[in-house]
Each structure stands twice: as structure tokens, then as C-alpha cells.
Amino acid sequence: MRWLARLRKNPVVLKELRGRMRGGRAFLVLTVYLSVLSCGISLAFLPLTSGSLAPGYDLAMRQYVGKGIFGLAVLIQFITISFIAPGITAGAIASEREHQTFDLLRTTLLTARELVHGKLLAALSFLFLLLLAAFPIQSLAFLLGGVEMEEIIIAGLMLITTSLALSAVGIFFSSLLKRTLASTVLAYAVSFFTVAGLPLLLMLLITIASPLVALLFMDSSGNLSPLTAVLVVVIGWVLVSSNPLIAALTTEAMLIDGQSPWVYQVPLPSNAPFAGLTDLPVPSPWIAYVVGYLLLSLVLIWASVRLVRQPEV
Amino acid sequence: MSALVEIRDLSKTYGQLAAVKHLNLSVDQGDLFGFIGPNGAGKTSTIRMLATLLRPSSGDAWVAGHSVRQDPRGVRRLIGYMPDFFGVYDDMKVWEYLDFFAACYKIPVNGRSRLIGDLLELVELDHRREDFVDKLSRGMKQRLSLARTLVHDPQLLILDEPASGLDPRARVEIRALLVELSRMGKTIFFSTQILSDVAEICTRIGILEAGEIVTTGSLEELRNQHPSQRRVEIILMEQGQEALKHLQTLKGVTDAQLTTGNQSPGLVHLEFRFSGDDRELSDVLASLHQQGLRVLRFHEPTHDLEDVFLRVTKGLVT
């Protein structure tokens, strides 16, 4: 808890939050975000007001719609975070340099760690505000049922991880580059690649790699060797786990399929059991995503502190 | 007097360019030290090294025994640094600006409100406490910046061109503040291009050129080191021509001439160069009186530092 007390005492947090919440910008962002969320969920509710989904009809279908509405809300939150996190962090340190306040801070007793952590915490506070503000609208999905507690927790953890990771990317580029513009462009490029580029890359890889794998590794009867089958599964798992949307969708598919939220049993080709296993157990994609991106965030935060600490040479 | 700042063999190079070359300098406790030199002389590099913002290429500097190389955090506790620009947080109020920096210096929350009030009163900005910083004039921002350097009650103020770009009134206000802070016991090390300010308020002066210290000392010491550079102005009630002729006969007097300027009617202005000490100069005044010349004013303008400066510098840059 000492680190929490230290963060609360961090002057950068108060300064950043004061600046961010002052004026109409934060209010506008929150209003637009909640409006989009409300519109999306209202549209998803439309089928319930008429036709076969009206009250008293198929319970399973209502639960299915409930899951859909919850998923839609989470998707909108993912997209919002992907847009906002780089925007509010990419200028965090670079703008101090541009406004010529960086030197003033460096001659105080504020440490590089306090500066970076303060900027990060202030950005995360705003992102968490967005997530929390959406909860009342999101909870409308619970009226229909179908949304399990584990789904809510997994979605929350993935959203928090995404917020932290994209903020850490923004802070890192802001510490590395002197110009806010360059830092913002790079932070958005990485954010876009993570959210949208990786699925495209995955589709491209599947399209190109499938025939290649078949050509290079399948025998004449169209079977893979056990080792190749395991390698294909592992590479696929890494790619699936590296993208928040794909990881979330795969996890949801597993849960609907009745699998454990912790371990995913990937079926191996029936002719190629590996070490006697017909299914290869791998951690659920959401776990890999959360752990991987938390580690990446820690590395980026550590690197940012190092960059900020370096004296001018 | 003990030295608060010791600079020993300090150098800074940027690639092939040597901005500061083996600088040796000491500033005593309580000094109001004016650091002057042409553009590109290495003043800002020296100041940035002293403020722990720039790593020296060689040599070291100590503030109250704390090395800028080995103990930058110890140095930061003791210094208040003001750069030659005003770092603006557009969205902060005046009191919030000081409160933020007080927090950065780990000043406890319960003591800050009073501290901020006192500092704003000192720099005469208490009436602008609730205004946003970007609404202040440049002079006010500079005064606020000076207040910022004081939030942790440092022993040493390091100011890089504090009067740069200010209008005459703001310049006078900053100058008065520096004198007041010096009177309060602060040691002040500041760079400037405004020689008249240095001559007027500094207890010691250092002249830097092409990265090297050319001379240091009080204004008196600099004058004595370069006696031929003394310039004296006289204002007489009348009899300008007679005074001029008499001055030209006196030992040590050169370049005597009648000057024009914003003279009052009926008064005559003269100036001359004098190579001699204070005693010999007083003999000149006595001689004018003996001639029956009615001397209204007889003085060495403080900006004769310009003469010293021009003499000791060669217009070199790094």
C-alpha cells in the first residue's frame, strides 16, 4: 500500500487531473463517448421491443441478445480506449519539453519515476473514469441475463490491461521523442496495429501460411507431423493472444463452448497426438493477453523512467 | 566569507565545439554575482551544468560541498533555478503553479498556503493569485518565476538572464527584487547582457568569453585592474570651455570633451577618461574648485563596466 500512498502524494497526478478536467474538453469526450455507447445499445435493444424477442418469449434468445449487448459495449470501450489512451499520453513528457517546463521539473526534487508514474496514473484515471461511466449503460445487458460474472471480470481485466498498455506505449514514445507530434503519430500507429493491424496480419498469415504449411509439412495423405502440429498451435495461440479483440472473442467462444476460463484445450490432428495427448492444453487467450501486455507495459514504463532520468549530454 | 559555489576546471564540449573551457570560479555566500559575456560565451552552458541539467565533459562544480556530478539531488535541494524562458502551464492558476512546484520540492501541504501567500506578496502578485498564469504580462511571469525559485528556500539562486526581454519597468522591478533577495541573505548567481544592471547591483562580477573566464572581481576591483578605463562625467553650472581647457592640463586626464544629451538649460556636461586611483581623481575635483568652477555633479557612471567589458573581451565566440 506504500506505493499507493506515494502515488496519492505525487504532485504530477493532481496537476494533470486538474488540467484535464478543467474546461470543457473532458466533459465533451465523456458526453460523446456515452452518447455513442447509448445509441449502440439502444439499437441493439430494438429487436426486443417487437417481434419474437418481446417479453415472454424465448429465454435462450434473450440471453443471447444480452451477451451481444454486453459484447457490443465492451467493443465500444475497446475502440474508445484505443483512440484516447495514445492521445492523452503521447504528449505527456514531450509537451513538457515543448513548453520548456521539463528543465524546471528536473531541477526540483521530483524524481523521473514520480514524473512518469504521475503522468501514467493521471491518464489511467481518466480512462478508468470512461470505463466506470459506461457501467450503468452496460449493465442494461444484465436485465436480459446471459452474461456470466466471469465474462464481466475477464472483460474488465482486458480493458484495464489495454488501457495500461496503450498508455505505456504513449508515455514511452513521449519520453523517447522530443516532439509531441512525432510521439503521437507513433503511439497511434502502435495502437492501430495492436487493435486492427494484428487481426489483419493474422488473416493474411492464415491465407498465405495454410497452403504453405500444407505444401511443406503435410505428408502425402494430408497429415501433419506431431511436432509441426504443436508448432502451428503455439504460433496460432501467440497470435490470437496478442490482439485484445481476437483474444476476447476466442475466450468468449471457449466459454460458450463450456470450456474452462483458465485452460484452452486445443485439439491436435487425430493422426498426430503429441506425447500421447490428443488435445494440447494452453492458457486461455485472455490470460496470455493480460500477462503479456502487463509485462510489456512494465518494460515500457521502466524504459520511460530511464529515458526521462538521463541528463542532457 | 566562505565559497558557496566552487567551479573547478569545468569544461563542456559539444562534439568538436568547446563551449566551456576549464572554468575556475568561486562564488561566496551572500554574493550577488553577475555573470556576463557575449553571446555564445558559454554562460548558459555553465549555468545549466551548475543547475545539474547538463553533464560536464570534465571538471566539477560544488554547491555547499555537493558535487553536481556525484550528488545532483543534493545540489537541487540548495538551488533555485530560473531559465532564460518562462515555462508555462497554460491551464494553471498563479497559486496552483507555486503549489505544484512546492509539492515537487516536498514541502508539506499544511505549510504551503502561507508560503504561497508570502511569496506572492514578495513579488507583488498577491492580487493576481486566482488568475491563470498565461494571462500575466511577461514581467509578472518573470516575477512569478522568481517566486517559484524560492518555494523551497534555497541558499543559491541561479538565474539565466532574468531581465531578458522585459520592458524598462519590469526590468527595474526584477532588479529591485534581486537586491531585496540578496539583502535577505540569498546568494545569487545570474547571467545577463545588461551591463548597467550588473554594475548597479552586483557585489561581484565574472566576465566570460569563448568559454573562458577573462576576469572576476567587484566593480571596484575591475576598475582598478583596468585603471585607464575610468570614465568621469561632470555637470557644471556654466564655464564649460574653461573647465575643458583646465581638465586638458591635468595629469591622467584624456579624451576630455563637452557632451550633449538631455541637458537642462544652463548646465554644461563634460566627460573625460582618467588613469589614476581614487585619490588622484579627488585631486581633479579639488583643482576644478580651485579654478572657481561651479561643479554640480562629479561622478563615474556605473556603466563604465561597459569599458571594462570592451577592454577585456575580444569579441571571440566558441
List its salient traits.
heterodimer, A: 313 residues, mainly alpha, 2 domains, two-stranded antiparallel ribbon, B: 318 residues, alpha/beta, Rossmann fold, Alpha-Beta Plaits, 6-stranded mixed beta sheet, 4-stranded antiparallel beta sheet, 11 helices, 14 strands, globular
Give an account of the 3D structure:
The complex is a heterodimer of chains A (313) and B (318). Chain A is mainly alpha-helical. Chain A has helices at 2-9, 11-21, 25-45, 59-89, 94-98, 102-106, 112-138, 149-176, 180-217, 226-241, 244-256, 285-309, and strands spanning 263-267, 279-283. Chain A has a two-stranded antiparallel ribbon. The longest helix of chain A has 38 residues, at 180-217. By secondary structure, chain B is of the alpha/beta class. Chain B folds into 2 domains: 3-217, 3-Layer(aba) Sandwich (Rossmann fold), CATH 3.40.50.300; 225-309, Alpha-Beta Plaits (2-Layer Sandwich). Chain B is 36% helix and 28% strand. Chain B contains 11 helices and 14 strands. Chain B has a 6-stranded mixed sheet with strand order 6-7-8-3-9-10, with helices on both faces. The longest helix of chain B is centred in the middle third of the chain and has 16 residues, at 168-183. The radius of gyration of chain B is 23 Å and the shape is globular.
Instruction: Let me know the number of strands of chain A.
Output: 2
Radius of gyration of chain B: 23 Å
Order of helices and strands of chain A: HHHHHHHHHHHEEH
Strand proportion of chain A, as a percent range, falls in under 5%
Distance between the termini of chain A: 37 Å
Protein chain pair with the most extensive contact, residues per chain? A-B, 22 and 29 residues
* Beta-strand segment tally of chain B: 14
Largest sheet of chain B: 6 strands, mixed
Profile the largest sheet of chain A. Answer: 2 strands, antiparallel
Q: What is the CATH superfamily of the largest domain in chain B?
A: P-loop containing nucleotide triphosphate hydrolases
Number of domains of chain A: 2
Number of helices of chain A: 12
The CATH architecture of the largest domain in chain B can be named as 3-Layer(aba) Sandwich
Question: What is the helix content of chain A?
Answer: over 70%
Q: How far do the termini of chain B sit from each other?
A: 33 Å
Sheet/helix structural class of chain B: alpha/beta
Bin the strand percentage of chain B: 25-35%
Average pLDDT of chain B, to the nearest integer?
A: 89
